[in-house]
Amino acid sequence: MHQSRSGKAVTFEEQFRDYYVLLCRAAYYIVLDQDAARDIVQDFFLYCWNKRHDIRITRDFKSYALRAIKNASLRYLEKSGKVQLEEIKVIEAMSEFFPEDDGREDDARTAALWAAVSRMPEQRRKVFLMSNQEGLKYKDIAERLGISINTVKTQIKLALQFLRKECGWMMKLLTPVIGLIYVG
Question: Is the pTM above the cut of 0.70?
Answer without folding.
Answer: no
